[in-house]
Amino acid sequence: LPYRILMWTMGVALFTHGFEKSQWKQIYFNPAIFAVVVGLIAFVLNLDFPPVIAKTISTAGSITTPLAMMIVGSILADAKLRGVFDPGILFAGLFRLALIPLTVFFILTWLKFSADVIATSVILTAMPAGSFTAILASKYKANEVYASQAVFVTTLLSILTIPLIVLLL
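Below the sequence we write its predicted structure tokens.
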């Protein structure tokens, strides 16, 4: 939940270079924030949705990743191949996929967290940039090609980094 809320508030602010007063309403009253609130209420109150609604939500949820990857791919199709492996993107990708997980590992180990908490936290931080990065960039007229390149490169690099990180655990 914190990730979703931050993504739809601070994430949007980063893409739009801050908020204007007129944007606050748009940010806090959008379908994603509404879904987070409904989901939180359903979780806290242990509510079950009717089967038709539950199936609809499940079906919609199962197609979001393939659709997002198709969007990333279509944006990348217009990009120059040389730009995909930009040194800045490679450095940022390795920073995200290796340095951050290693830092989390050492901090949580030093703080004596349980092995399960350490493993879960490290593996989550070792994941590639989400395809949603490119979708937000596209929606808010930011550099969608650069965001798509970052998604592609971090996904490609994660084929190597995730197994190495898991070996560390």
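Residues 108 and 118 are 6 Å apart (CA to CA).
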